[in-house]
Amino acid sequence: MTSQNKMAWLDRGIAITSIIVGTISILQAFDISFPPVRLDILLTSTILLLIALVIKRLKRGKSQKPEIIEPTPPISNFTAQLGTPPNPGFLPKAQRLTQIKPGQNPYVCGSSLRGNSAVFYGRGRELGGILGVLGNPDKPGNVSILGERRIGKSSLLNQLYQALAAIPHFVTIHTTMQNWSIDSQATFFSQLHQVICNALKKQPNAVDDFAHFRDFILDYANKGYRFVLMIDEFDKMTDNPNFDATFFSNMRALGERHEYQFAYMLSSYAPLSDICHEGGIQESKFWNIFGREYTLGLLAKKEAAQLIQEPMQRSLNNDFKQTQDIFAYSGYHPAFIQIVASEYWTAHHLGFDVNADAIQQTLRHYYQDLWQHRTETERDLLLKIAQHETPRNNATLDKLRQRGLVDADNQLFARFFGQVFEKPSTTD
């Protein structure tokens, strides 16, 4: 029986006993008796029982600690933090590598890399440039991050979120559109306001529209705070009918005007100008406030080699000699290196042969997705490159190179990539 149930039974016992005492007292007052029952003795015994119950109830009440019911935090699609100097922010690679333990597979497959991941390599130019834009002394600038699926956009956002945690008076809010449960603008502003208040350790009031949210941001901007809202997979937000041209016009004003000290960092597959020109959103001119756009492509050769060799050496305690074999499958693509290197690590650790069939089956799925999302012009050019034809410099080639389908030498980013191409049919 729980403590609460015991207390309830004591309270009931005291109540019943009190009723019995009262009843006996009334019977005695009217000189009513029930031989052979001695009412005086019964009354004395009942009073003693009542006293014992009351004393026990008082003791239990003093010893029992009041139950503290923790409030259930509201479900939110956002997380937020307030930058503080004690937070180390984004650590140098040497410190991040100390997380790797001997005998543990260091590679991450199927998910983005968390902040300060030991296997986050490269992207120094993007990290430095974006932090510079956000640190503009006049107002944090708006940044757009583009790239293919699995090229590392979410992982980069996680490192930036980590870096901003060390900047005082900088409030960073993060959300991803994947599996969003926001069904209205009111829910959007309410949840956004709630997590910012939590980060600032302030008691929130009711805010569920743009006007009140704007006034809230202005109040704290005047107190020296700056804000950046990170939205991962922004493409999906523009497909949501709850966010119309009026919504994006309001959000544009928030991210454009100096007094709000509010900025956006968005990641998407397509350029914002293309996304926002679809439907009624184009009227908002939301994309016009983004002064800097970063397209993620392949890692540099040195960075890609280090991603393979350094974690291998730390976790296997020996030098790794098959870097070029991995490159044949993955090229300098960060996510595909993780997939292939993980298989090689397992084989070396357990003393087995590398399962080439498993690697090819996994990669073929991803590479077919890359191929399916190409335009006909892009496919024609990729087929020519696969057939060792020297491509001519043009806008299509530049785009493929920037997005990591073609390397700096204008070759396919990985030899295995060419095996998934669908050759055009020929007729006799």
From TrEMBL:
A GO term for molecular function: ATP binding
Boundaries of every Novel STAND NTPase domain copy: 227-379
Bilayer-crossing regions: 12-30, 36-55
Cytoplasm found in the keyword field: no
Record keywords, A-Z: ATP-binding, Membrane, Nucleotide-binding, Transmembrane, Transmembrane helix
Keyword Kinase attributed: no
Family matches, as InterPro entries: nSTAND2, P-loop_NTPase
Protein name per its UniProtKB record: ATP-binding protein
